[in-house]
Structures
1.
Amino acid sequence: MNLIYCDESCHLENDDSNVMVLGGILIDESNKSRFYEEIRRIKTKYGMSTWNEIKWTKVSNSKIDFYIEILDYFFENEISFRALVAKNKKDLDHEKYSDGDYDLWYYKMYFRLIDPLLEWGNEYKIFIDIKDTNGGHRVDKLKRVLCNNMYDYNGNVLRDVKQIVSNHSEVLQVCDLLIGCISYYHRGLYDENSDTGKNRLISHLINNHMKNLDKSTYTYQFEKKFNLFIWRPEEVR
């Protein structure tokens, strides 16, 4: 069984950002317990409670060594990450791209994020971070869209899609950290010459792990570890 943990940044239509980032971490269920244990071991190493939540908003100079080690752990282990960056979301012509409906556009973006991760012959469960009271409806609709696209009407491939809270899942917390880096970068807030914690963490991602955050990576089949898709309006009809 494959598990996909999804999170999102600046996903609301009228928030203060013109960039939305969706992200998902894929992990084999057999590796889940080991991942949880080792992430909690790193927390303990830095004097934190195992219940301390990893969050992008908590990244600071005082905790930078901890967050760098979490980032390195991701790249050293058998887990994959894919993110979708949608820029200029407030300026989109929704009449042209999603029949005038922001929510429909949102589902199209989530579909673009997850669909490449799903393959016939495998089974998947998707876990999405709870954001608001409308989440249950969105999750049900997303499952229908994904299953219908694969003709998986009986749920043989996509076994379940449900919401969870991030403080119960180290995998979801690491996903939050990764999309936080990407969102901060694409919102134009990153400064390579700044020594703040967030800037140092992004510099570590770019320089130590050789990641170009400006361009889409290869298709998911060829680049599964850290896959980035920069969405452009003309690619969705």
Note: The chain has a mean pLDDT of 86.
2.
Amino acid sequence: MYRYVPNRMVVCLVMLLFSLDLLCINLSLHLATSVSFYYGWMPTLQEGIFSLPVMFILFSLIWFVSAQLFHLYREDVVGRLESMFRSTLRTAVTTLLLTGVILFLNTSVISSFKALAVLFGFLSGYLLLSRLFMTYVYTVLPRRFNWVKKVAVIGAGAHIDSVVSLFDQQQMFYQVDTISYDDDDELLSKEETVLKFKQYFEAVSKDGIHDVFLVTSPEMYQYSEDLVSAADHQCVQLNFVPSMVANITYTNKDTTQINLPIFQSRGESMSTMPNRLKKRFMDILISGCVILFILSWLVPLIGLIIKLESPGPIFFKQLRSGRNNKPFYCFKFRSMVVNNDANKTQASLGDKRITSIGNFLRKSSLDEFPQFINVFLGQMSIVGPRPHMLSHTEYYGSLINRYMVRQFVKPGITGWAQVSGYRGETKDPMLMAKRVEHDIEYMHNWSAMFDFKIICLTVINVIRGEKNAY
């Protein structure tokens, strides 16, 4: 059973809801205690069992423990308005009941009832306004700002309706494209079938869709390896949905998440939205610090030396292959004289195009530092597969099996392949194959600690010096 994560919109809603609640439930308590103190319904800070700061801590703790108990901030709950309303009501009732117990311990019964009634009024007002606001966010903003996730459902016409209906239940977060074929098409030869699906995957990829659900019969599984390979080449995540169960499952209208019985072609840990957000947070934090505290003085210094040694720009920017094979301009300090072969030919040992300052920059890896700007802009990550020139991606994509799998994630300034010795020029296709092998290993085993290990190894290699850094 596989729970399909909707998109970054749901994660953003979780973060927004959590932040609003954290701020406003404490504001509600502050207003309630101020009114209660003014009318003498609550003791001063020096009286009673619990001081005011302790009450604030207890109130927040009760709220968030109750929210955890009723899954208020879980993605599948926030993903549906009805579920979020239900969890909010249960959390609020539990919080008020337990807070009432604390008030009874802290003051008289009558005063406690009055203070609790005031707190109920302020908290109810906040929850009503905040959930009205969230309703507006759910129903208007996703379509207006195109925050929906695009997916494709492919299959025989008789089998895909039930799968599409699951996405329709959360239509505010999804845009579903369907590709339907006749049942008789499954009688085509293997070559004809694979070619047909290659055309399907190419079409959806050009339309910006990278998640495909293939509703298929058992006869189609004999082609699964070829279909996965064809999907990988287009940076498409392929999910096989057995047609037998697609038509008989998930008739419960109260479902709060999309569950599909599928065989998933790729299951990298970085494919989940929480892990991607965790990695993005660290990328922004580190790259922001590097830009502010290092590049702010390093760019003028190195830029002046580059300008004095040879005419041309300070930065060398080149189109490279990014996530989902989307090209972007990768920045480096210019280490060569301006030449027409920079976008076609890799630097090699003893390359006469490399300037004196360029040789130092390459040996010390300082030429890569402007890529922290790419990281801050969201085009790259600190750690990931190195971005290749577009010509190399096209060439090796057709030559090396699973090469395009590395394009499922953002490229990095450093990577597992680089610290494992596969850095620099790759004249031998076997060297590129080993680099791809390490990149895929990194994707399958990603963790924050794995990234930290690679960063530490990168620093050690820079200090020690690398023979392939030229």
Note: Residues 361 and 377 are 23 Å apart (CA to CA).
